[in-house]
Amino acid sequence: MEFFDRVKKINPKILKATKDRFSFRINHHRANTQETIDLLQKEGFLPEPVGWADDVFVLPMEDRKKIIKTQAYTQNRIYIQNLSSIFAAYSLDIAPDDWVLDLAAAPGGKSLIFSERAGKVSAVEPDKSRFFRMKRNFKEHGAKNIQTYNKDGRFIYKACPAWFDQVFLDAPCSSEAHIDGEVTWWSMRRVRRFSKLQKELIISAYESLKPGGQMIYATCTYAPEENEVVVDFLLQKYPEATLIEVEVPFENYQKGLREWEEKEFSQEVAKCVRILPQGAYSGFFMAKIKKA
Ligand SMILES: C[S@@+](CC[C@H](N)C(=O)[O-])C[C@H]1O[C@@H](n2cnc3c(N)ncnc32)[C@H](O)[C@@H]1O
After folding, report:
1. Ligand 1 and 127: CB distance under 6 A
2. What are the domain boundaries of the chain?
3. 170 CB under 6 A from ligand 1?
4. Which value, in Å, is the radius of gyration of the alpha carbons in the chain?
5. Residue among 125, 128, 196 whose CB has most ligand 1 atoms within 8 A, to mutate
């Protein structure tokens, strides 16, 4: 099956999405929401609150180039980030003393969110240049409670078994949500290669989690082989793991698939969320998992 046929089978709406807006959130390490919005309004912008968080805003795409020249942006008071990514990171129930592991962290946008809410964050990234860019990003945005590790996430659980209160795995993936028009680099072989890596990473994430802790598995791809299949694999391997229902405050999403290509998934998998692209939301998949 070709890429477009596969996506159509998941949901034909995916191919009709318009990307006419972008989003940003307030970086609380450097700024206050009201002051920053006042500053932007003085410069002629009309940021619209997203509705499900008081520090996340949306603007029309034509403002995207102009906003990077504003003081709010150059002083790192705002962080431009996709709404789906922000929503997924905000969905982790972080308590102020929690220790959060971000297992695939660069460029670090989600770690920055965790750092505002948690006591301590550990951010793991194996790619050297992405790792150093991420460290710079943390410094520029004033996050002081993030420890960084230039390591392969697959083996983290061996050094840190059951250490973390919360884990976020924003897995490396075939990035189908970023395919725009022509499909040049997509292949089923690539999807299968990522699926294998994701299964190793999700085990490492789960094993690193304290009993009673929660984790989120996420990708920016549509392929069920990289999403439902990976979550189902975890549930088969750890029957005590359960999925937590995520309350989604917008309409452009669907629940996890019950089956794909004659493979039926565990009933729990229906609690996964596939965000459909629309406006400032890009395509995204997330599953919230609880360790017994
Ligand atoms: C989707 S991106 C993460 C985006 C990041 N969470 C954010 O919001 O800014 C996936 C990252 O996983 C990294 N990665 C690739 N293989 C990995 C591995 N074996 N262990 C951990 N991370 C890996 C990639 O280099 C990439 O930076």
Report:
1. yes
2. 21-80, 82-290
3. yes
4. 19
5. 125
Residue type, 52: W
Flag whether the pTM goes above 0.85: yes
Torsion, CA 66, CA 67, CA 70, CA 71, rounded to 10: -170
- CA of 108, closest atom in ligand 1: 9
Q: Which atom of ligand 1 is nearest to the CA of 89?
A: 8
Helix (H) and strand (E) counts for the chain?
Answer: 10, 15
Q: Cα torsion for 52, 284, 290, 190, to the nearest 10°?
A: -170
Burial of 165 from C-beta contacts in 10 A (0-12 / 13-18 / 19+): buried
Of residues 125, 88, 129, the one with CA closest to residue 217: 88
The pLDDT of residue 183 is 82
User: May I ask the CATH architecture of the domain 82-290?
Assistant: 3-Layer(aba) Sandwich (3.40)
Banded model confidence at residue 289, pLDDT cuts 50, 70, 90 = very high
Mean pLDDT of 2-20: 94
Residues 111-133 have pLDDT tens digits of: 999 999 999 999 999 999 999 99
Distance 152 CA to ligand 1 centre (A): 10
CATH label, 21-80, candidates 3.10.490.10, 3.10.310.50, 3.30.70.1170, 3.30.70.270: 3.30.70.1170
